[in-house]
Input
Amino acid sequence: MGAFDWLLPGNDRKLAAIAYAGRESASAEAARRRRERHRAHGIPKAATAGQAWERPDDVVRDIRGPRRS
Output
């Protein structure tokens, strides 16, 4: 009966602990990939938006010249 022990109920947690030891869970992997994707796309996107926001100020500064205090 030793060959079919894996079919018997009751030792699912033990089998999972042995079979998947050291592996990342699917939900942990999905969360990690979301964080990586956010960092890869969010930071450059925010930088581009910031540059676009400052660009009109640069154009005005070029036309009027430097600010006088």
Notes: Residues 10-64 form one domain. The mean pLDDT is 78. The helical segments are 12-19, 26-64. The chain has one domain: 10-64.
